[in-house]
């Protein structure tokens, strides 16, 4: 097969370099020679790995979550689309094709885009998505391009983490405002509204409330740009709870270009805005032709959703209390005024809504467009032309939203997990954010490769998670979604059977109401020694031997069972009990391939449990992990396939605002542990051991894929030209020897036949010097 042949051809070169150790180049000093000839330095330089490359296979028939969109008023051909985790894309032909233009940044999470009106080659991008859901990625500041996205300059604000809006002064384009949300999972100082007076070279924070309040929106009066409005949002995420709203939230107004501010939601002003109760997220929009007209969408404990001012924000009246205008405020709270007609206003939420009477009444106007709306750009020269971004991708309308065209030509599939079957060629299966479960071939018996029509959808509801195929019969598949359910399907007949061990209660309550607790991302695990045995994780470990027709509970509650972390989520204004914050649950399961008596389990509240007698007794070995964070998110626990007693654990603690890499290994069933994180960047989602070479390890992080050739002592960047995609899962095919990764960015990638990597580990490459310098391999030639 084409990919495997290419790798096989390069393998001879790889092994020759690895075994010959290479001679230093002419003129190399002895000290330089020690590094230059070290095999691991060759790995880091890309010389050894130059013949390897990742192969993208999709799926591409759907898109992904869009965070912002932008056009150029006088050039309909230029379009910018920013994704929550897939990067920034640009079209120069009106959307016929798109190219990624932000591949070399520190992240692929885009929060806000602004194009300079008088010079559209100048583009600002704020990284980090502003819709603060549970699966958000991270940003690393604000960037500017002066050549239409070809090159980028980092402008600072690195610790802001995420942006909701960037606006450019209508008269002086060197003045730029950036609304920074700040850290989602913890308090931090670098948040609020920032202003630059020199085109982004330097920034001043002009509006700051406290360490948990960020700027959720900003708008400038186009005729009197000294008047600036800012929405401020007091919020905090925790793994078990989400607080939306607090004393820092409110709508603010400046009359001197941002130097001083008035809180318009101050009840003492008695101006018609809410202010007596708690306020959450705030959105604001100023009408371009008549800036006396200002709209604000406010999450509030008082009655109302949308307020309108007709005197530049001095007085207000509530014009709509329809909840559908902002049904999940933390995720939406977006309002846009038509630039010509002051009575036409759009709100973005689960539904796309439009009013033509100044906000008094609204109608749904999304047509066939995907739900969950986050972004809208209205062409100021032709307000019938709309660019829209949703959880389902990028859309264009040329008739005020009556009809929409879906531009499905950007790789944005946000995978959670993957599975592989034993068909020939084998299939890759997996679940995606808001795009269910899909299956597709890893390659085809022709030169066309994998195409859109080769993918088949298994599940028809919301987020898909785990997918496992029976190795004896690839048509029998087990999968689950984000409600903790689990289904078995026979693909020959499409017969599905819901096999949940215990029926969950209705959504809307806290975890304490459930008999058994299931994580948003509940693990399914098939025994490597007996495919009739399937495990499913709740707060206890379930096991079936008959395809899910019956289940046994083979453990006590393996979590901390902390009742304080099982309460209602959301609030204090809008409860949001979608099970995304269900806590004290099992996250990962691994039965030993060497001994089925041994089963490892990791939980979301810091436990690593192991049984050596098929579940009769359990030991929590997490207290033995020296250097592990307290109450860690044990997202990946993997038993070694080569050494009894050995296991690996990756702890993802970013949900407690800790972005370190935590990977540990034990050789004695958890009695002692050693940290093996040197060389990794960002938090780790998954760690695994190679099927054939136990010294070769793989780690999927929020910023890419890494490998270790010496059992974890040192890690090298294995992106091989990939941008910093979030790698949520990885798996090796036992027959084809391929490494497959699931990215929460651009779908699935395959590294065909990793024999080269296995041989490098076998010849002891990682014992050489210089491995710590190997993180630069991502920039391939």
What does this structure look like?
With 781 residues, the protein is mainly beta. It has a domain at 2-51. It is 5% helix and 35% strand. The protein has 4 helices and 57 strands. Strands 14, 15, 16, 17 and 18 form a 5-stranded antiparallel β-sheet that branches. Strands 1-57-56-55 form a 4-stranded antiparallel β-sheet, with no helix packed on it. The chain has a 4-stranded antiparallel β-sheet with strand order 2-3-4-5, with no helix packed on it. Strand 36 (473-481) and strand 37 form a beta hairpin. The longest helix is centred in the N-terminal third of the chain and has 19 residues, at 2-20. Residues 1-45 and 766-781 have low confidence and may be disordered.
Uncertain residue segments: 1-45, 766-781
* Termini gap: 24 Å
Average pLDDT over all residues: 91
User: How many strands, what sense, and barrel or not for the largest sheet?
Assistant: 5 strands, antiparallel
User: What overall form do the CA principal axes indicate?
Assistant: globular
Class computed from helices, strands and strand pairing: mainly beta
Sheet-strand content, in percent, reads 25-35%
Distinct helical segment count: 4
Query: How many runs of DSSP E, i.e. beta strands?
Result: 57
Question: What would you report as the Rg, rounded to the nearest angstrom?
Answer: 27 Å
Summarize the amount of helix as a percent range. Answer: under 10%
């Amino acid at each position: 097969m084409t990919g495997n042949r290419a790798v096989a051809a390069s393998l001879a070169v790889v092994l020759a370099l690895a075994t010959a150790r290479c001679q230093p180049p002419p003129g190399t000093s002895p000290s330089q020679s020690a590094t230059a000839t070290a095999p691991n330095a060759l790995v880091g330089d890309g010389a050894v790995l130059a013949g390897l490359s990742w192969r993208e296979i999709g799926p591409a028939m759907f898109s992904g979550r869009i965070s912002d969109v932008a056009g150029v008023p006088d050039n309909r051909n230029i379009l910018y689309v920013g994704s929550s985790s897939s990067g920034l894309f640009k079209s120069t032909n009106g959307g016929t094709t798109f190219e990624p233009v932000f591949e070399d940044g520190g992240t692929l999470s885009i929060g806000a885009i602004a194009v300079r009106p008088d010079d559209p080659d100048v583009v600002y991008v704020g990284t980090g998505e502003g819709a603060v859901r549970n699966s958000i990625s991270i940003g690393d500041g604000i960037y500017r391009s002066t050549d239409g996205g070809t090159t980028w300059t980092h402008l600072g604000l690195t610790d802001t983490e995420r942006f909701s809006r960037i606006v450019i002064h209508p008269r002086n384009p060197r003045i730029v405002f950036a609304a920074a949300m700040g850290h989602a999972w913890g308090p931090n100082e670098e948040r609020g509204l920032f202003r630059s007076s020199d085109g982004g070279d330097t920034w001043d924070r002009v509006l700051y409330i406290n360490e948990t309040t960020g700027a959720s929106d900003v708008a400038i009066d186009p005729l009197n740009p000294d008047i600036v409005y800012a929405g401020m949002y007091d919020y905090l995420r925790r793994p078990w709870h989400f607080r939306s709203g607090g004393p820092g939230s409110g709508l603010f107004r400046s009359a001197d270009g941002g130097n001083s501010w008035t809180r318009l939601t101050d009840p003492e002003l008695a101006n018609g805005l809410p202010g007596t109760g708690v306020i959450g997220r705030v959105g604001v929009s100023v009408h371009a032709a008549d800036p006396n007209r200002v709209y604000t969408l406010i999450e509030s404990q008082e009655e109302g959703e949308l307020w309108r001012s007709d005197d530049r924000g001095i007085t207000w009246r509530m014009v709509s209390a329809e909840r559908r205008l902002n049904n999940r405020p933390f995720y939406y709270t977006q309002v846009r005024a038509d630039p010509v007609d002051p009575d036409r206003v759009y709100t973005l939420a689960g539904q796309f809504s439009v009013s033509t009477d100044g906000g008094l009444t609204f109608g749904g106007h999304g047509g066939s467009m995907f739900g969950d709306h986050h972004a809208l750009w209205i062409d100021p020269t032709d307000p019938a032309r709309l660019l829209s971004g949703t959880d389902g991708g990028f859309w264009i309308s040329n008739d005020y939203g009556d009809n929409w065209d879906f531009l499905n030509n950007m790789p944005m599939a946000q995978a959670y997990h993957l599975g592989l079957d034993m068909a020939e060629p084998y299939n890759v299966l997996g679940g995606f954010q808001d795009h269910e479960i899909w299956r597709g071939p890893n390659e085809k018996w022709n030169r066309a490769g994998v195409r859109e029509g080769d993918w088949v959808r298994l599940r028809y509801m919301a987020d898909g998670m785990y997918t496992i195929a029976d190795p004896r019969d690839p048509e029998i598949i087990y999968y689950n979604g984000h409600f903790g359910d689990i289904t078995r399907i026979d693909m020959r007949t499409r017969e599905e059977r819901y096999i949940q061990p215990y029926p969950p209660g209705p959504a809307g309550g806290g975890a304490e109401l459930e008999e058994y607790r299931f994580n948003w991302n509940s693990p399914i695990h098939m025994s490597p020694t007996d495919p009739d045995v399937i495990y499913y994780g709740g707060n206890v470990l379930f096991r079936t031997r008959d395809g899910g027709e019956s289940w046994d509970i083979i453990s006590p509650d393996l979590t901390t069972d902390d009742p304080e972390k099982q309460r209602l989520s959301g609030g204090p204004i809008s409860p949001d009990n979608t099970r995304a914050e269900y806590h004290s649950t099992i996250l990962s399961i691994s039965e030993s391939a060497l001994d089925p008596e041994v089963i490892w389990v990791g939980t979301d509240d810091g436990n690593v449990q192991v049984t050596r007698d098929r579940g009769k007794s359990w030991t929590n070995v997490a207290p033995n992990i020296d250097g592990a964070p307290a109450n860690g998110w044990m997202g990946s626990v993997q038993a070694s396939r080569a050494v009894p007693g050995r296991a690996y654990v990756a702890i993802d603690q970013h949900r407690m605002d800790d972005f370190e890499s935590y990977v540990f290994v034990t050789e004695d069933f958890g009695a002692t542990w050693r940290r093996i994180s040197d060389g990794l960047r960002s938090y780790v989602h998954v760690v695994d051991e190679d099927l054939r070479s136990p010294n070769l390890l793989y780690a999927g992080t929020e910023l890419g894929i890494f490998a270790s050739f010496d059992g974890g002592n040192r890690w090298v960047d294995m992106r091989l030209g990939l941008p910093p995609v979030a790698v949520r899962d990885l798996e090796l095919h036992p027959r084809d020897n391929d490494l497959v990764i699931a990215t929460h960015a651009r779908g699935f990638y395959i590294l065909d036949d990793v024999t080269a990597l296995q041989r490098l580990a076998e010849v002891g490459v990682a014992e050489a010097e210089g491995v710590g310098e190997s993180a630069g391999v991502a920039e391939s030639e």
